[in-house]
Amino acid sequence: MTTTELTGKVAIVTGAGRNIGRAIALALAEGGASVVVNARSKRAEADAVARAVEALGGKALVHIGDVADAAAVQAMVDAAVEQFGRLDILVNNAALRREKPFAEMDYAEWREILDVTLDGAFHCTKACLAALRKSGTGTIVNIGGLSAHTGARDRAHVVTAKAGIIGFTRALAHDLADDGITVNCVVPGLIGTPRPKDKPEPAHHLTHQTITDERGKPEDVAAMVRFLCGPAARYINGQAIHANGGAYLGA
């Protein structure tokens, strides 16, 4: 691995076992960062990402744990600092995306989405804060969602959680500015990712289209995350930046 803009940095990427999370972990590794690969339960996927990081010449640590569990998150951060001696980057990517009409949704189903997507970002940020402060150039990138800006049928829990991530981003940018920590949100839209046969493409994808009629790739989102984690992006703070091919053009 040649010297690049993230050399010497250490990153935690939650939900990094596949799709966008995997692409982010690899992009940060290509930038020179050591990467903690987090997954909720699928160790085989996380181990494969770690091997891919190492194939790039980077260093990786796998940590299996649910970001909705504060104790598990603290254990992950402790392991990262023990292994690598520091922490500079947190990418809050872990999320659940389900579809169900609001009238049929019970509170447990509502709470499950918020627990992982929104509370998980809270737990991870709190656990990482001391180490990010010591970094001097700490970076938090939260991963948003297109439907938080457009709305969507059968996704009240997901839309609410992802809208909360936008508010969380803006609030943290203010709270952590004095610590030299930037906080931004990257909002993917219409990204082509592998899906199980029993889980079709989200219905709201069918009501939107990109300017070019092409779906994005996880790597398109990962490239923006890598940029925000680098030295050239230090003046960008508190922003929600869309990577959606023009599917949504709002502010």
TrEMBL record:
It holds the Pfam family adh_short_C2. Residues 9-197 form the Ketoreductase domain. InterPro entries: KR_dom, NAD(P)-bd_dom_sf, SDR, SDR_fam. Belongs to the short-chain dehydrogenases/reductases (SDR) family. NCBIfam families: PRK12826.1-2. PANTHER family: 3-OXOACYL-(ACYL-CARRIER-PROTEIN) REDUCTASE, 3-OXOACYL-[ACYL-CARRIER-PROTEIN] REDUCTASE FABG. This is 3-oxoacyl-[acyl-carrier protein] reductase.
